[in-house]
Amino acid sequence: MKHSPDEPAHDVSEVPAYPHVFEPIRIGAMSLRNRVMLPPHASAIGNLWGSQADANRNIAYWESRAKAGVAWIDGVAGRVRNRLVPGFEPHGYGAETTGFYRLPFFVERVQQMVAAIHAAGATVTSQLTVIGGNPHTPSRQLSAPLYNSRPHVLRRDEIAWYVEEYRFSARQARRAGLDGIELHLNHDDLLEWFLSPLTNHREDEFGGSLENRARFAVQVLTAVREEIGTDMTLGVRFNLREEMPGAMTPPRGSPSRSTSKAPASSTSCTLSSARPGGIRATSNRSTTPRRSGPIWPVI
């Protein structure tokens, strides 16, 4: 574009793309030195739940990111104990039926990780994850030599069991000294399957309306908050735009298209996007919805 002689040219190179990225911010109980957050991912370097040598390598990986300047590391992607029957989970994702939070050395290992990351000036949080749609019995129809199984509808007593398991896991996270917890409601997590009308076809108080579909997640949120108090940050990771007929899509003009107005001291909310070909939590079925979109208000 040409400018007139009297009009000064504007040098766009002088305008930072993200002017606030290195400014401090407070999220719940966490004071962050900047706004750079490292989300959970598989580092493939060591194993926090393996031998001590493996754990040291894994901790060193996260520590190096904190030393590089990251302010927030959501590095403990912890599985909550599952009711899965052993032997019917061939893809291995979420097959740790004991649950990471139930491991006898969970607190000790995470304390080591927390100490290293805190010493480098960053905060560290943990996810609470239960992969949805886990099978409990063989399927009547053979679908593949390695995947021939069928889930069942959770009973009310099983839902209550999960709520208490989330509560225990939150207690362990607090004991380990973590700065906060992120409740996982995406990537085919069990709570997301309840929340989505695409996968929740129940006809009781846990199905139908949004309020009913969110009931399980609200019960978990309540239990976790009761357990950790207000000096730990509690976050929720949503995927609520599934872009499929009958799935969740925020209506135009709804409050769901803006960020939550919930008090920062109570709960935070992060946006997650699962693009086609990205992270998958269950079998490679073409019917898995594509989930991405805006942040919904905190429930």
From TrEMBL:
Biased composition (Polar residues): 261-273, 281-290
Record SUPFAM superfamilies: FMN-linked oxidoreductases
Keyword entries, A-Z: Flavoprotein, FMN, Iron, Iron-sulfur, Metal-binding, Oxidoreductase
UniProt feature, compositional bias: Low complexity: 249-260
Cofactor(s) needed: FMN; [4Fe-4S] cluster
InterPro entries: Aldolase_TIM (IPR013785), NADH:flavin_oxidoreductase (IPR051793), OxRdtase_FMN_N (IPR001155)
GO molecular-function term, one example from the UniProt record: metal ion binding
Domain NADH:flavin oxidoreductase/NADH oxidase N-terminal: 21-242
Superkingdom of this protein's organism: Bacteria
Region of interest (Disordered), ranges: 242-299
Protein name per UniProt: 2,4-dienoyl-CoA reductase-like NADH-dependent reductase (Old Yellow Enzyme family)
